[in-house]
Amino acid sequence: MNVIFNDQMLNENATPPQIKTTINCPRCKNNFCQRIPRGASVKLILPWMSLKHYYCDRCFKKFYKLNS
C-alpha cells in the first residue's frame, strides 16, 4: 500500500490551515454565512470601521457585523 502526500504537507515552511470563526445569522441563527465584499459607499464613508457584510445561505438575509 502506497501513501501519497501533497507537496504542501511535505514542506516544513508551509503554514497550517486557518480556522475560521463562524458567524451566526441574526434571523435564523444559522452558522453557514458567507462574506460579501463591502460596497464602495461603505468603504468611502466608514473606512476605519471593521464592518463586515454577510449573507445567510438558509434565510437569504444580508446583514452587517462589527468585528472586534
Describe this structure in words.
- By secondary structure, this protein is of the alpha+beta class.
- It has helices at 7-10, 40-45; strands at residues 33-36, 51-56, 62-66.
- The protein has a three-stranded antiparallel β-sheet, with no helix packed on it.
- The protein starts with 6 loop residues before the first helix and ends with a strand.
- The model has no long low-confidence stretch (mean pLDDT 78).
Q: How many domains make up the 3D coordinates?
A: 1
What integer value in Å does the Rg equal?
Answer: 18 Å
| Broad shape | flat
Let me know the number of strands.
3
Query: Strand content of the residues, in percent?
Result: 15-25%
Q: Averaged pLDDT, please? A: 78
Which strand order does the major sheet show? 1-2-3
Order of helices and strands: HEHEE
Biggest pleated-sheet summary? 3 strands, antiparallel
Question: Can you lay out the helices and strands and say which pair or pack?
Answer:
Elements: H1 7-10, E1 33-36, H2 40-45, E2 51-56, E3 62-66
Antiparallel strand pairs: 1-2, 2-3
